[in-house]
Write the structure tokens for this entry.
Amino acid sequence: MKNIYEDLSREELQRKCEELHKEYVSYKELGLRLDISRGKPSHEQLMLSMPMLDTLHSDMDYLSEEGIDTRNYGALTGLSEAKRLMADVMETRPENVIIFCDSSLNIMYDLITKSMTHGVMGSTPWYRLPEVKFLCPVPGYDRHFAITEYFGIKMINIPMLEDGPDMELVEKYVSEDPLVKGIWCVPKYSNPTGTVYSEEVCFRFARLKPAAEDFRIYWDNAYNVHHLDISRPRVIPELIEECCLAGNPDMVYKFASFSKISFAGSSIAALATSEANVKDVISQMKIQTIGHNKINQLRHVRFFVDRIGVMNHMRKHAAILRPKFEAVQEVLKEELGGTGLGTWTDPEGGYFVSFDTLPGCAKKTVRMMKEAGVVLTGAGATFPYGIDPEDKNIRLAPTYAELDEIRQALKIFSCVVKLVSIEKMLEEK
Amino acid sequence: MKNIYEDLSREELQRKCEELHKEYVSYKELGLRLDISRGKPSHEQLMLSMPMLDTLHSDMDYLSEEGIDTRNYGALTGLSEAKRLMADVMETRPENVIIFCDSSLNIMYDLITKSMTHGVMGSTPWYRLPEVKFLCPVPGYDRHFAITEYFGIKMINIPMLEDGPDMELVEKYVSEDPLVKGIWCVPKYSNPTGTVYSEEVCFRFARLKPAAEDFRIYWDNAYNVHHLDISRPRVIPELIEECCLAGNPDMVYKFASFSKISFAGSSIAALATSEANVKDVISQMKIQTIGHNKINQLRHVRFFVDRIGVMNHMRKHAAILRPKFEAVQEVLKEELGGTGLGTWTDPEGGYFVSFDTLPGCAKKTVRMMKEAGVVLTGAGATFPYGIDPEDKNIRLAPTYAELDEIRQALKIFSCVVKLVSIEKMLEEK
């Protein structure tokens, strides 16, 4: 889209700049303290799960359906009913599921650690290799990139297209380079772009021909049931099955958690993968722990019951979140629509809106927002090593704040984007 | 003690053997299914903590004392009040404490993993070294040894004496060999011997002069408040403070959990260590997770309040456990006392009784017990690599079973010990 300020004279731009600066100063003087930086559920969302706390009082039954005392040691890989619930949510089978503690990030971290020290299904431990590489669709999730950076794994940017990562590039790297051991994916309502991988993209993932026997797709389906309009949920192919059909039965690790369904950080998380991978993971897990919190598993099963229970619950989440995402779109359209100063996503689910400024404007925008009392995700955070090559991507996280706060934050954001863009244009004139 | 069968003739021994075999067969015919293999709390113990489930219902306050919403992300290292409670139990200060999930074993595993891949406070990652060694007081805890074995760390047996590990050997290894990076310790009511390290031993630990800058004492004080007679608790020196005074401020990692205080596997666990170590651990932890289950932390704080609350609670545990441990002593004394066929510990706390048969009799004893329907911890499990050089140590875990089951199991055990010992003597005659 054409930048509507492009044809203005230096004087006209300067005048505009002064106007915007006045507006910016007036915002600063409000002394706001807003935070739309992280994908946190709001108070209202958390209240939805409060009845879960009442599913296990002291006078209630604490046994699992198999008669396991959930208050004692045992059941390393989780209660059967918890596996069933998770399998339901993850669209796979209970025998493919291991239930962990409260964080799916922790599962991913542990898998990479295990691969570093012990390899994957008997492959060479990665620390013995001259180099290990991961493909990183960008923009992506900062905490994914932090794990691979921590282990010195070389990250390769893969552009995110409309329907998923650039599969031509992915196929090339994966099939040609045996040091490419993995790829980070958030296949539905991706963080931060909201992208839903197309069927075509998913099928191409399943049909990859990796040069490395221990290449794995880290399929972090964190937002699988986090639709903004539950009457029109997006559905993508189930990758364990697809990989199996394509002759790559062990190529995918799927992740999910209830963190943004029940309580963030106090829920249950899971890995779903082939039975051979499950066996491989257990060989490590049984050394690491005696078993995870089964009481919390029982609470989740009692409260959510099954996929229907989860979907009914997510409908209520959607009702809270939809107006917030709509507010973001409204303000951005009103303030920046048609200006050509930025593009942004309009997701159908997930927790984020991804905004691209003109090249070279993201860092300054985030800094000026902070000075005006509005915290955004750090510019660059959505890229490996924190380096956005074009310095243009900004992640907006509208779930936690109140509706009027979001409107206000986006109003200020729009002002700052305009101001920074025009200042940049003036510099370059 | 003299073996009273030693002077019997071959015929007398054979007669005795036949008698015992008849007794053994009669036990077998009972078709029992008893298990005294693992240190699990009993049903009655678990019931003590049921009111904890009522400390957070849906209509109750879910905020921490600092106003943190325990249902949302945040507070990576734990709630302040949870750190205070843990510090209280661990006899240290809240700033030395990090609260984790439900398993202290998992913390130990993660620390060893981190040391393998990233070293300790900037030291060379262990996987880059030609070899890494750990000292292992024996008999000891099988799950400790499993971790070091998993990482290919060479384990060196250190005899456990009356008042703790053989410190002369420990000092020699630690001061002379820079590849010795750690030692596994359960300093109070040790697993399985029940040993309480003496002040002298603790002070010698604090004053070690390690050849390796990244040597750490893995001080797993799992049974710190698990006294059998709470009116006479054993108290040992606090090692973070002692190490600090001795000029080794960062030499110890202390571990504890509520697994055998509240619910096994569904409680909270902690690391206590120097502030410099805390910082080092956080550098890894912040990559691994967003934070652990704070709702469970809040429940524990509300139910136990402080050290006094914990001690009152542990008094009730002791009242349940004491008769079980007394029963073990009674039966063993009655059946094997004065025979010279075995020696055993009489612990003042913890979860185990350690039994030594005559050399070469442990494996066969455990196998014959299993055939009679009584599961014991595998012989050898209390030694690195599962190898008990003298094949004599057997761990008895009397906490989980009912009193009459324990008596019966120990009665059968005594019969089998006698039978196996005499068969062995016959072989050697």
Remarks:
- The longest strand of chain B covers residues 154-161.
- Chain B has a mean pLDDT of 97.
- Chain B has 13 helices and 13 strands.
